[in-house]
Amino acid sequence: MPRPALRRGWNESTRVSVSSRRTGDHVLTMRGIDKRFGAVRALSGVDFRVREGEVVALVGDNGAGKSTLVKVLAGVHPADAGTIELDGDVVQLSTPADAQDLGIATVFQDLALCENLDVVANLWLGRELLERGRLDEVGMEERTWMLLRELAAKIPSVRVPVSTLSGGQRQTVAIARSLIGEPRIVILDEPTAALGVAQTAEVLNLIERLRDRGHGVVLISHNLTDVLAVADRIVVLRLGRNNGEFDAEEATSEVLIAAITGALDVARPAPLPDEPRAPVIPLSGARRRTDGDR
Ligand SMILES: Nc1ncnc2c1ncn2[C@@H]1O[C@H](COP(=O)(O)OP(=O)(O)OP(=O)(O)O)[C@@H](O)[C@H]1O
Ligand SMILES: [Mg+2]
Q: Whose CA is nearest to atom 12 of ligand 1?
């Protein structure tokens, strides 16, 4: 049975309900996801889980299937096989509207902001608050400030066009906009890819605020330093399959790179310690090879 749509529209009571939610339950469970594009098998039997209040990084080389997996989750590309559960109920994500109604918000890499509109207008576009049939500009501005304060966002004014903001501030606006419907899951596709050092720190800080608010966060990133700094768990995809899952506190860049490149292959068991090895040749009588040796 598809899960009923969550209530849409942001208000104080929905904010409180998210913030006070118990953390630790799996809000999302994807099992055995397959996706083909013609002859290309983009995903084969992929499993992926997210808890509430957890940041899960999705890493992998170019073409590993990261974007395809989040597009399945965002309802852009329905899966060919596999199941998706939200709070334990199997759901169908056939369109982006299905995903949005079920509380899955995606911030795509291009952000899709309206450059000529101000911050308030961008946040509420298509979901404007009305009061007695007219736009409630004051209400929208107040709630915009409330949300930005909660995210500890550094935006000087909410009445300037988005085109005047820095890359980090625009990312902040796009993330704030994704929170208007109080999603359970927020997907961020390469949020720091185009940012400098200070702006990256700002966005990583923002991701921590999302976790504090109880959202499950899916972070796609090629930057392992960012991933290790902010993620709780790291899921590696390789050639469209799962290739390892790591607790971020224990993972290192070396291990992650090995899993990403295939030097560490979770599908291939490590050799047993008592497996026969090549015979050891005693070194007595051996001599160091010199340049004249062939
Ligand atoms: N719309 C599509 N049509 C055909 N093939 C596609 C489509 N989208 C993705 N693919 C293929 O599916 C595979 C996985 O691609 P995907 O974009 O998910 O990888 P990715 O991990 O996001 O890579 P990147 O790090 O480069 O963004 C690739 O072989 C890609 O060419
Ligand atoms: Mg991609």
A: 42
Look at residue 19 in the predicted model and tell me its pLDDT.
Answer: 35
Question: What is the C-alpha to C-alpha distance for residues 172 and 175, in angstroms, rounded to an integer?
Answer: 5
Q: Give backbone dihedrals phi and psi of 231, rounded to 5 degrees, phi first.
A: -80, 155
CA angle centred on 90, ends 86 and 93, rounded to 5°: 80
Give DSSP secondary structure letters for 268-289.
SPPPPTTS--PPPPP-TT----
pLDDT in tens, 78-122: 999 999 999 999 999 999 999 999 999 999 877 788 999 999 999
The neighbourhood of ligand 2, an ion, using CB within 5 A, equals 67
* Full set of structural domains in the chain with CATH: 1-103+183-268 (3.40.50.300), 112-182 (no CATH)
Residue among 67, 69, 110, 221 whose CB has most ligand 1 atoms within 8 A, to mutate: 67
DSSP H helices, the chain, are 12-19, 66-73, 96-101, 119-124, 137-150, 167-178, 197-212, 224-230, 253-261
The pTM for the full model equals 0.80
139 lines ligand 1 (CB under 6 A): no
In 3D, which of 124, 142, 102 has the Cα closest to residue 178?
124
- pLDDT score at 203: 87
* pLDDT value for 13: 36
Q: Which helix (H) or strand (E) holds 164?
A: none
146 CB near ligand 1 (under 6 Å): no
